[in-house]
Design a protein that fits this description.
alpha/beta; TIM Barrel
Amino acid sequence: MTTTSTAPLGDITGSEAALRGFLAGLPGVDQVGAEARAAMLASRSVKTSAKSYAVDLAISMIDLTTLEGADTAGKVRALAAKALRPDPSDPGCPSVAAVCVYPDLAGTARAALGNSTGHSRVQVASVATAFPSGRASLETKLRDTAEAVAAGADEIDMVIDRGAFLSGHEGRVLDEIVAVKQACRGPGAGRGGEVHLKVILETGELGTYDNVRRASWLAMLAGADFIKTSTGKVQPAATLPVTLVMLEAVRDFRAATGRQVGVKAAGGIRASKDAVRYLVMVNEVTGGDWLDPRWFRFGASGLLNDLLLQRQKLATGHYSGPDHVTLD
C-alpha cells in the first residue's frame, strides 16, 4: 500500500489492516436520524433577499456538464459560452464554476474558455479513470488522467472501483486514488498549481450510509480535493441524506487533520428549490466556510436553466418566456 500523510491521524494508511481497522471504527450512521435531519433542513423557508443571494451562489457553484456519446466540439464550445455568460442580457449574472466534459474534449473546452488564471475563472473539469464504471486497469486510468491534464483540464473527476471497495479491498482503492492524484501533478499542471482531484463515490451503488461515510474518509485519506456523490449515470444519484453524511465527513476530517475538502453533489438536481435546500444543508452542517465554489459544487446541466428563470422572476416579478434560456 502507498503511505499518505494524514497527520495528526497517524500512519493509518501504511497497511491494509490499519486502514481497514480505522474505517471499520468510524461511528455508524443513524439512518433514521440522517434522513429526518435532511428532511427537516429541506423544509426551511428562505426569504426573498436570501433567495436571490442563494440563486447567484448556486449558479457560481455549477459544473456545467455534458457527458454523452454524441458530444461534439461545437456543443462543448456552446456550453463554454453559456458557462462564461449564463445570461447574456445581464452582465451581473455570475459565471459557473466549471465545464465538465470527457477527456478528448478537454482541450476544446480550454480553448473556448480561455487561459486566464485565478479562482474566478471558469475551470475545465474532465471525467477520467474509465468513467462511469471505473472498470479498467490502473495503467489505462492513469493514461486517461494524464491525457486530460495535458489537454488543459484544471480538475479531474475520477471514479472509485466500487467492486473493490464493496469486496473489502480498501487498500487497492486508496492506492488507485493516490496514483491518480500523482498523475494530476504531471505535465500541464503548472498553469496554476496541481490539478484538483474530485473522487466520485457513486453512492447509489454503495448500499448504506455507513459505506458512504467510509468511502468518504477513504477518498480524503488518499488525498482527494473533493468528494463527489455520483456519476449521474446511476440511480439514485445525489440525495440530501447522502450529501449530509458526506458533509459531516468533510467537517470531521478537517477537525482531525486541518485539511479542508470540498463536496460535489451530482445527478438529479434540476430545480432551483432543490439547489437552495442543498445550500441550507451546507451552511447548517459544515458552516459558511464551504459556501464557496472552491468547496461546494453542483454537477448539473438542466439546473442552470431553472436557476436563470428563477433569477429573472426574482428581479422582475414574472417568469421569462421559454426562449430566455438555451436548450443544451
